[in-house]
From TrEMBL:
PROSITE patterns: ABC_TRANSPORTER_1, ABC_TRANSPORTER_2. The lineage of its organism: Eukaryota, Sar, Stramenopiles, Ochrophyta, Bacillariophyta. Keywords: Repeat, Transport. This is ABC transporter domain-containing protein. One of its GO terms (molecular function) is ATP binding. Residues 1-176 form the ABC transporter domain. GO terms for cellular component: membrane.
Amino acid sequence: AYIAGFDAVEERSDALKELGIVPQFDVYYPDLTVGEHLMMYAAMKGVVQRKQREWAADIATKVGLGSDDVFNRRAGALSGGMRRRLSIAVALLSNPRVLFLDEPTTGLDPDMKRGIWNIIENMRQDRCIILTTHAMDEAEALCNRIGIMAKGTMKCIGTQSDLRDRYGSTYELTFTVPVNTDTSDEGVEAYLVESYDDKVKVVSTFGGTRVFTIDKEGVDLAELFETIVKGQEAGLYFEWGINNTSLDEVFIAITAESEGVEAGEL
């Protein structure tokens, strides 16, 4: 195996210099400040002493830990999101060309998760990033190519579009029905079944929202649009949307295939 052009066995030392790793669980010293962490790791990376503070402050700023208050705060007093930023900062200290991120947003609230996503997006330039995650929305937001594993084996790899084309077999239809429509009302479902019979499946019915999938096989997209518009004109719903197969559905399809069952059985 090669890392940034270096043989991982014969040129191990050079390869490791080009590699940064953010583990799933943050490793930190509670009594050390953010700045002390970064200066310590900068020294380990070979940064000369007179430049260590400057180097640490620059990296801290890039990950949102650069203010005096945070830079001088003990790691034990940081929030989960800030500790995650510290782990990323440590991995970036040597300006690695290859960066591994293991479950980078596990356990973080949505706002913190978006903050970490922004950091990852901003550091992609001239760098290979390999990210492991169970969150398909994270993969969709950050990854150019996606590989899906099941039972310890890589089952597929490709762009989002490739995977959807290869494994996605349905369209997802979302409708917003009039306010006073009862949740038990099956008007939209009956209307779709009339045209597409057993190709239509109910995904969810909640409040004023109805979600269905429809099998792509044998369905002309232009005709589907025409059918949906006619339903809107008839007053069955006032808003609608159509999406290609989601990455969650792709993941379920691949996992089901590896388990030898139908996707609906998982």
